[in-house]
Design brief:
- With about 240 residues, chain A is an alpha+beta fold.
- Chain A has two domains: about 150 residues, Aldehyde Oxidoreductase, domain 3 (Alpha-Beta Complex), CATH 3.90.1170; about 35 residues, no CATH class.
- Chain A is built from six helices and nine strands, in the order H-E-E-H-E-E-E-E-H-E-H-H-H-E-E.
- A four-stranded antiparallel β-sheet of chain A has the order 3-6-1-7. A three-stranded antiparallel β-sheet of chain A has the order 2-5-4.
- In chain A, a hairpin with a 2-residue loop joins strand 8 and strand 9.
- Chain B has about 260 residues and is of the alpha+beta class.
- In chain B, helix 2 crosses helix 4 and helix 9 packs antiparallel against helix 10.
- The longest helix of chain B has 17 residues.
- Chain B is elongated, with a radius of gyration of 47 Å.
- The N terminus and C terminus of chain B are likely disordered.
- The chains are: A alpha+beta (about 240), B alpha+beta (about 260).
- The interface between A and B is large, with 47 and 45 residues.
């Protein structure tokens, strides 16, 4: 009887055999403040806004130019697609995003929201083979202008980045401007890095310094837009390596 | 129509627009392609590039001045307490390297050692490395490298342990601490060859009473033998001394008579 007890004890003890190292596990994420809304999927955006009478608009390319003023930070979600350049989002792009993301969403654990509005800016096109003149063309389609640094889609819920990264990368590649998948922490880290770079730049000559004091008369070749944005933006393009 | 490439646009507010603008034809500010930049602007951008700070020494050259105290997880702390109790309770602690032991072989080994009340303990090296320097066993640190196992027991039963280890050749004895003395592999083997306490005590007693036992055996023999021995002894000590030689002759006779 004693020997049998001893044998079972040995067997139980024997089941635990350790290797030389000890693995320390990361604590799982705390999702206590996460609330999944009633309609977690991306809602349908109209191709054409509800106008009684559609008005033609000027091109106004400055809605692409420069850094974004609004929708640059997270609201409810944890991960988002951030635009790294300016461009126009058409209804086709929005539909592609909506369908891809909604397909991969698990409505019980994840939710996604739009951070861009439905297309509202009318783009006119003249018919094929028409000569110059004869007035402005007719409205062809509507677009949403997006500036650099704006959030496009926000995703959140009881998920980790790895689960969502694949889908969001897939979508980001198809957008008409360069886009990146970022989390709240990585966006903050990016801003922080930029501030650090500005602080510890060893180059005594900075774009801002030379442009503001008009050294060598370089204001001749620099636009006021460049001056304002310290040379980081050129048209709709963004250069992240500039300080 | 002679078109001018450049025209000066004078404005009241200086710096609103660049002084030299190409008016004839040119793309707008925002284009789908990257616009060719004026050479001076290119030079300006080249000159004002970011220069990172250069560290005085290579990143790995000097050790960090402030050593980061990593907070140990709860499991590590728990295992440390267990290690402490093991060290306190057990007199014999032997560190053995196990090289790819079968589960079956391990079980057999455990069973054989269990018969002699020797336990096999597994502790992660990380735990040992954090516990040992703070205790009195810090010189045991070099033993805990790689896959090691500890054989612990309350009584130092080295001979039985070695006999069991002989059957499993892949377990290599590294060293240990037996009764508060650090021993290497050879030390443990020598320790096993030591005689038991009773034999040692017996030897000691025998050594102490050697002289008296010899005298007793000598007295129990024929007195003539004893007298001859004593005469020999005197001759050796004082060569040529007749008064001393005669006096002892009478005393052995009286002793012999008394016996």
């Amino acid at each position: 009887m004693e020997s049998w007890c001893g044998v079972t004890l040995l067997l139980q003890q024997h089941l635990k055999i350790l290797s030389a190292g000890l693995k320390t596990y990361e604590l799982p994420q705390d999702y206590s403040g996460v609330v999944i809304p009633e309609k977690p999927k991306l809602k349908f955006l109209n191709k054409v806004p509800n106008f009684k009478k559609a008005k033609k608009e000027m091109k106004r390319l400055r809605d692409i130019q420069g850094p974004a003023k609004g929708a640059t930070s997270f609201t409810y979600g944890q991960y988002a697609i951030v635009a790294m350049g300016g461009g126009y989002l058409e209804w086709g792009h929005l539909e592609m995003m909506r369908l891809t993301i909604n397909r991969q969403l698990d409505p019980s654990t994840t939710f996604a929201t739009w951070r861009v509005s439905a297309p509202y800016k009318p783009i006119t096109r003249k018919g094929l083979g028409q000569r110059m003149g004869g007035g402005k063309g007719a409205i062809d389609f509507y677009v949403t202008p997006v500036k650099c640094g704006r959030l496009i889609v926000e995703v959140g819920g009881r998920i980790e980045l790895g689960e969502v990264e694949g889908v969001l990368n897939q979508v980001a590649r198809k957008l008409p401007f360069p886009a990146k998948v970022m989390s709240k922490e990585s966006l903050a880290a990016m801003h922080q890095e930029q501030a650090e770079k500005e602080a510890n730049n060893q180059n005594p000559w900075t774009f801002q310094r030379i442009a503001r004091s008009n050294m060598l008369g370089l204001r001749r070749v620099i636009s006021p837009f460049d001056l304002h944005n310290h040379g980081r933006f050129t048209g709709k393009f963004f250069n992240p390596s500039r300080v | 129509m002679a078109a001018t490439l450049c025209s000066r646009i004078l404005l009241t507010k200086p710096g609103c627009l660049p002084l030299a603008q190409s008016v004839r034809h040119g793309s707008k500010a925002v284009t789908r392609h990257r616009k060719p930049m004026h050479i001076l602007k290119q030079k300006l951008l080249a000159v004002t590039e970011y220069i990172p700070p250069k560290p005085s020494a290579a990143p790995g050259a000097y050790p960090s001045q402030t050593k980061r105290m990593e907070q140990e997880s709860g499991l590590v702390r728990f295992l440390k307490k267990k290690v402490e109790t093991t060290f306190e309770e057990c007199k014999m602690l032997v560190v053995v390297q196990n090289n790819a032991t079968n589960a079956e072989d391990m079980l057999l080994l455990r069973h054989r050692l269990h018969k002699h009340d020797i336990a096999i303990k597994f502790f992660p090296n990380q735990v040992m490395r954090s516990y040992l320097p703070s205790s009195q066993y810090r010189n045991m640190l070099p033993l805990f490298i790689g896959q090691t196992v500890m054989f612990v027991s309350k009584e130092p039963k080295v001979k039985e342990m070695l006999r069991v280890l002989r059957s499993s050749p892949q377990m290599i004895l590294l060293g240990g601490c037996i009764e508060n003395t650090l021993l290497s592999r050879e030390g443990i083997l020598n320790y096993s060859r030591l005689p038991s306490i009773t034999t040692v005590q017996g030897e000691l007693v025998g050594g102490l009473t050697l002289m008296t036992s010899q005298t007793v055996s000598m007295l129990q023999r024929h007195p003539a033998h004893l007298s001859a021995l004593l005469q020999q002894y005197i001759k050796q000590n004082q060569p040529g001394g007749t008064p001393e030689s005669t006096a002892p002759e009478t005393t052995p006779k009286t002793e012999g008579a008394a016996v």
